[in-house]
Model the fold of this input.
Amino acid sequence: MTGSRDKLAKAVIIRPAEDRDIKPMQAIFNHEVEHTLSSWRWAPLNDEEWQGWFEEHTTDPYALLTAEVDGQVAGFAGYSSFRSPAGYDTTVENSVYLSEDFRGMGLGRRLLKELMSVARDKDIHAMIAAITVTNERSIRLHQGLGFVEVGRLPQVGAKFDRWLDLTLLEVLLNHNPQP
Done:
């Protein structure tokens, strides 16, 4: 595995998402919708819905990053609004998605770390991750970068004919004493 990590380390480009990334990102996301509990959506996003999602996440102050490996979109990470009232403007919620072929190689960590850096540069104060309790890999990823569990919400969602529990994790990015 170390050889794969070394090769990946040299080949990865993390950059702001561009229009050319829309289709491959949509494919990664929709695969997760159809086969996992990473997203609680029940149906894949169509082209118009994905375009709206993409535009929201690439509109300032939000951010969307793509991880490219040898010209292929291997994953993406982004953040957008946590909640809509103005009092939440400096708090965002993140998403990290990887193609199955690129999991377990440290790519999610690199994407999330870069996303956190972008958020700090934009004076985002807090970043929230809302993760299915059973998604231990994603929880560990976030905790490894300083996120702490701040709450659990039992049975707040359902997918694949079962109730789902949600864990909320948070990291404070900018420790400004005043908002």
